[in-house]
Write a structure and sequence with these properties.
Length: 134
């Protein structure tokens, strides 16, 4: 046990950073991070209790709801890991991938969160070198 603790302590990350840069993500960068576009406001089907396709909880975009099982049930178990179902379009993987995957919504015009505008000083104003009144 002592050897295990010593091994863990010796491998602790000691990375040092010189600086951190924080900025707004561009639309192209957001689309690159995205696994698909959310097109419907629906979440879950009230009859089947399964996520609606192209909705806010879509299994095709965000991943399966059950570990190593596609939405329709055609592929089950670990041996089909990484396979994309032809019927439902869901990748067979751990359900934890839903925590990491991100979708996007295409809007008619660009929008910004109110915190970027109404905070003092205005963060968008600082980025654009403008005052709130401009």
């Amino acid at each position: 046990m002592k050897d295990l603790l010593g091994l863990l302590k010796s491998q602790s990350p000691s990375d040092e950073f010189d600086s951190i840069r924080i900025g707004l993500a561009s639309p192209e960068m957001i689309r690159a991070w995205s696994f698909g576009e959310v097109k419907k406001p629906e979440t879950i089907n009230y009859r089947t209790f399964k996520p609606e396709r192209d909705g806010l909880f879509c299994a095709k975009i965000f991943g399966p709801t059950k570990d190593y099982e596609c939405l329709c049930g055609k592929y089950k178990r670990l041996k089909h890991r990484g396979v994309i179902c032809e019927k439902c379009g869901v990748e067979v993987a751990l359900s934890k991938v839903r925590r990491d995957r991100m979708g996007h919504i295409e809007l008619a015009s660009p929008v910004a969160h109110i915190w970027f505008l109404k905070s003092l000083p205005s963060r968008i104003g600082l980025l654009l070198d403008m005052t709130l009144r401009d």
